[in-house]
Amino acid sequence: MVFDLDDTLFDHSGAAAHGLGAWLATFHGPATPELTAAWFELQNRHFAAWRDGLVSMAEQRRRRIDGLFALLGRPAPDPAGLDALWAEYAAAYRTGWRRFDDAEAALALVAAAGLRTGILTNGPDELQNDKIATIGLIGRVGPVVTAESLGCAKPDPRAYAGLCAALGLDPASVLYVGDDHELDVVAARAAGLRAVHLDRRGTGPAGERDRIASLHELAAHLEQS
């Protein structure tokens, strides 16, 4: 039983919105719904560039801050200034780190079923493991397989192969649960895993056969394992 981390066990979107609001308040003003939506669009665009190997982690972070400043009508700082601003945002983001309320129930359910656990996450090793420790899941889920440690990221088939190798399991015996339909469901199935879409916001494809709105609904899928 393998989980994605961000927006599956860990409330990344909530923490990011909280962090943006707290950070913007120190030099600009309130984070309007429009600015918050733009921040997430910048995240998705530039993180995808890192995921695809086009830019470094530091550069994608700089581009996100640069893009936000352009929207605010502020001059773009130099790279050192962008890095300093990112550090301020990251500190505010960290104050919002929480796990979802249903994460505990899901892990208890998996443990009761006698299933092994793991995490496959698109992110840097240190950051993702820090999140896991902060939200109280260290030692409760593992192995933790990151894009950085693998040298490739979802949806690259090698990421799922690396996960299965870390677990010592055949892909067909692994059930993967995540919030991103393309990365955590479509690509996982293409790599031979079984997958369940965690669609917390109800915005996923209507035709998805294995969809849950909460991790509380995971039990029926474990029975099929």
From TrEMBL:
Domain of life, per lineage: Bacteria
Pfam families: Hydrolase
Assigned keywords, A-Z: Hydrolase
Gene3D superfamilies in the cross-refs: 1.20.120.1600, HAD superfamily/HAD-like (3.40.50.1000)
GO molecular function, one term: hydrolase activity
InterPro entries associated with the record: HAD-like_sf, HAD-SF_hydro_IA, HAD_sf, S-2-haloacid_dehalogenase
DNA-binding as UniProt keyword: no
Protein's UniProt keywords contain Hydrolase: yes
PANTHER family with a match to the protein in the record: HALOACID DEHALOGENASE, TYPE II (AFU_ORTHOLOGUE AFUA_2G07750)-RELATED (PTHR43316:SF3), HYDROLASE, HALOACID DELAHOGENASE-RELATED (PTHR43316)
NCBIfam families, per database record: HAD-SF-IA-v1 (TIGR01549)
Name assigned to this protein: HAD family hydrolase
Organism: Jiangella anatolica
